[in-house]
């Protein structure tokens, strides 16, 4: 695991933009962390880095947002409001994973052991100071320093 610090929402978005450069269509990222740790900021930067030209918003109430991208689409899933695994099954997440999408799943811990194969988990933490955030990247998803 490798940790990256962010001292502002803008820096968290920039970390997402940098992550975009190492992703290929078909990738699935699971984002894990408490409320307010920067997951949606990170997704906004990542989407910008992937060529998404529309505003990125949290799909907390719609559960899934689909953003057009040069390679196909970015699928942004927010499971915050999900309370049972059967609700997730009804979403049909497997149908969104393809060679023409990159899937980003916030609150991925709610899927337990039901994440799509090959999902890379990123963990988000509050830092020591008020604006600091820490993002932990798994092995195999390396950003330039």
Topology (SSEs and partners):
Elements: E1 2-6, H1 9-20, E2 28-33, H2 39-49, E3 64-69, E4 72-78, H3 85-91, E5 101-106, E6 120-126, E7 133-137
Parallel strand pairs: 2-5, 2-6, 4-5
Antiparallel strand pairs: 1-7, 3-4, 6-7
Helix pairs in contact: 1-2
Topology pattern, helix = H, strand = E: EHEHEEHEEE
Overall geometric form: globular
Output the radius of gyration. Answer: 14 Å
The strand line-up of the biggest sheet is 1-7-6-2-5-4-3
Q: Give the CATH H-level superfamily.
A: P-loop containing nucleotide triphosphate hydrolases
Structural class: alpha/beta
Distance between the termini: 14 Å
How many structural domains are formed by the residues?
1
Largest sheet, strands/sense/barrel: 7 strands, mixed
Instruction: Enumerate how many helices there are, as a single number.
Output: 3
């Amino acid at each position: 695991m490798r940790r990256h610090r962010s001292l502002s929402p803008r820096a968290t978005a920039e970390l997402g933009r940098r992550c975009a450069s190492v992703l290929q269509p078909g990738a699935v990222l699971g984002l894990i962390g408490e409320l307010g740790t920067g997951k949606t900021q990170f997704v906004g930067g990542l989407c910008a880095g992937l060529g998404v030209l529309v505003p990125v918003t949290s799909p907390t109430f719609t559960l899934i947002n689909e953003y057009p991208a040069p390679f196909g689409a970015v699928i942004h899933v927010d499971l915050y409001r999900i309370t049972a695994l059967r609700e997730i099954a009804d979403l049909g997440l497997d149908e969104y994973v393809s060679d023409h999408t990159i899937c980003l799943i916030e609150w991925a811990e709610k899927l337990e052991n039901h994440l799509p194969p090959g999902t890379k988990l990123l963990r988000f933490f509050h830092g020591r100071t008020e604006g600091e955030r820490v993002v932990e990247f798994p092995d195999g998803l390396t950003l330039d320093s």
